[in-house]
Amino acid sequence: MDHALRLGRRNLGRVAPNPSVGCVLVKDGVIVGRGVTQPGGRPHGETTALAHAGEAARGATAYVTLEPCSHFGRTGPCSDALARAGVTRVVCAIGDPDPRVRGRGFTMLRAYGITVDTGLFEAESGLDHRGHFNRVRLGRPFVQMKMALSEDGFVAGEGGRRVQISGPHAQAQVHMMRAMADAIMIGAGTALADDPELTCRLPGMADRSPVRIVIDSQLRLPLTSKLVQTAADVPTWVLSTVGAPPEAERALRAAGCQVMLVRRHADGRLDLGEAMRLIAVRGITRVLAETGPALAAGLMDADLADEVVLVRSPNTLGHGLAGLPTPLSPRFQLAETRPAGADMFETYRR
Question: Which end of the chain is less packed: N or C, by CB atoms within 10 Å?
Answer without folding.
Answer: C
